[in-house]
Amino acid sequence: MTREPLDNPVETVIKSSRIVNLSNHTTLISKDGAEHIIADSGAPIRDKTGSIIGAVLVFRDETEKKQVEEELFKTRKLESIGLLAGGIAHDFNNLLTAIMGNLDMAMVKSETAKSSSNLQEAKNAAMRARDLARQLLTFSKGGAPIRKKMDIANLLEDTTNFILAGASVSPRFFIAPDLYTLSADEGQLSQVIQNIVLNANQAMPEGGLIDIAAENTELNGHPTLPDGPYVRIFIRDYGVGIPGKYISKIFDPYFTTKEQGNGLGLSTAYSIVMRHEGYIDVSSKPGAGTTFTILLPAVVSATDDALDTETKDETTNISASILPLKILIMDDEDAILEILGEMLSFLGHRVMETLDGNQAIEQFRKAMDQGEPFDLVILDLTVPGGLSGKETIVELLKLKPDVKAIVSSGYANDPVMAQYREHGFHGVVNKPFQMQELSETIRQVMSLEE
Ligand SMILES: Nc1ncnc2c1ncn2[C@@H]1O[C@H](COP(=O)(O)OP(=O)(O)O)[C@@H](O)[C@H]1O
Ligand SMILES: [Mg+2]
Questions:
Q1: For residue 250, what pLDDT is reported?
Q2: Residue 106 CA, ligand 1 centroid: distance in Å
Q3: What is the overall mean pLDDT for the chain?
Q4: Pocket of ligand 1 from Cβ distances under 6 Å
Q5: How far is the CA of 92 from the centre of ligand 1 (A)?
Q6: In this predicted structure, what is the pLDDT of residue 319?
Q7: For residue 162, what is the domain's CATH number?
Q8: Could you please report the per-residue DSSP string of 242-303?
Q9: 293 and 171, same structural domain?
């Protein structure tokens, strides 16, 4: 947009004596100063003799259409970057699984190694790399939130207090009682709040206040969201603010104005909110502060229990010890197969390693024929060019309907990982995993009663 004044449209029509489309993306400034993006066209009015006596102008307000287009463009851009990032993060996770696993093993094998600060540092760095890879995966395509019914009020307070612990900034909460229930991924929403509150804190190096507000609202005619009940969240700081020239860029991956920034906080927040069919927006005044507004759809009917399957786990009694198990593992990466095998052996189990689904099925059948079936299988979700974990479990279930199975993946956000139960699995391990997480998951899966 040039902000140049246009030629007088009436003159143009009269001069050309034809119907004309005058211009697109024109800004009409109304008397009250509000700006509307319009498309306009004009046509001459003739009297009986055919001579032109005037002109009609038609203005169509395109402000909203333009907003929707921009939103779509933003989403597309993030999608393509997400695809790339997801691929990289996946390979990264495989490597990190081997790195972290071997560090873990080294530390449990020798007392000297256990107390070595070098190894501990290496492990800490590997964990940070894992967090980064997970952030990347969060906005990679296909990331499905693991939804549960939840109440956002506590999450807002807990997450904010956690992030601001020890900071010179203090939060003020304005949270309406009786907020609607959401069906959302608590971990992901916590990440959204963390990223925004962290930015707010960083925007006020001298300290100050952050206001966190939440209220119920009914949407009706929102430009991108369907009508219905929503929870609206505001996070406002009184910090440096965002200059106008940056405001359209802040949700882009890797956009940062900070020396130590990575520019992933808001793009991650954006994709998480989009995946929850919500909306996130910002308004800011340089020097005065910034407000982020988030809309999240509420659960409509109280009887909608389909999403509540997850809570079952928490009440399951986890038995204290598990017997040595006979475990079949499948992963196409040699290094992962090896370290996974080593970890499981260390935990006292007997392990059979296979490199793809067909091998796994063959070994599984063989063991059954010999009357010594496997107690547990751990399958890699994606096997390029081979039978994947998702396909393998279907066959194993035919052989043994009560087979206990764990799915492992470097794609923490793959829909199968979110809905593992529907696919016949009993648990998930996200690569890279630590020995502790692995043994915990095995314990849980083995103590599940079918
Ligand atoms: N509350 C805020 N106040 C001022 N600027 C902000 C705020 N939140 C975000 N920004 C701007 O948006 C950019 C991107 O934020 P983000 O994606 O979290 O990445 P990072 O914090 O790593 O820079 C920041 O570098 C900053 O310029
Ligand atoms: Mg940030």
A1: 94
A2: 40
A3: 84
A4: 195, 199-200, 203, 237, 239-242, 246, 250, 255-258, 261-267, 290
A5: 26
A6: 33
A7: 3.30.565.10
A8: --GGGTTTTTSTT---STT--S-HHHHHHHHHHHTT-EEEEEEETTTEEEEEEEEEBP--TT
A9: yes
Reduce the DSSP state of residue 337 to 3 states and report it.
helix
My answer on whether 153 and 280 are in the same domain is yes
In a domain, residue 223? The reply is: yes
Q: Which atom of ligand 1 is nearest to the CA of 195?
A: 18
Burial code of 69-85, b = ≥16 C-beta within 10 A, e = fewer? eeeeebeeebeebbeeb
Atom of ligand 1 nearest to the CA of 266: 17
Residues of the chain with pLDDT under 50: 141-142, 303-321
- Which residue owns the Cα nearest ligand 1 atom 24? 256
- Given this model, what pLDDT does residue 232 score? 97
Q: Ligand 1 test: best mutation among 160, 163, 201, 256, most atoms within 8 Å of CB?
A: 256
Domain match, 71 and 87 both: yes
Residue 366 contacts by C-beta under 8 Å, 6 or more apart in sequence? Answer: none
What is the CA(6)–ligand 1 centre distance, in A?
37
Which residue has the CA at smallest separation from atom 12 of ligand 1? Answer: 250
Please say whether the beta carbons of 4 and 34 come within 8 A.
no
Angle between helix 435-447 and helix 334-346 axes, rounded to 10 deg: 70
pLDDT at 310: 39
pLDDT tens for each residue of 315-336: 333 333 457 899 999 999 888 9
Ligand 2 centroid to 428 CA: how many Å? 29
Q: Is the domain of 384 the same as that of 408?
A: yes
- d(CA 24, CA 39) in angstroms, rounded, equals 5
Ligand 1 nearest-atom number relative to CA 257: 25
Domain of residue 124, residue span: 66-138
In a domain? residue 308: no
pLDDT in tens, 210-241: 999 999 999 999 888 999 999 999 999 999 99
- The count of domains in the chain is 4
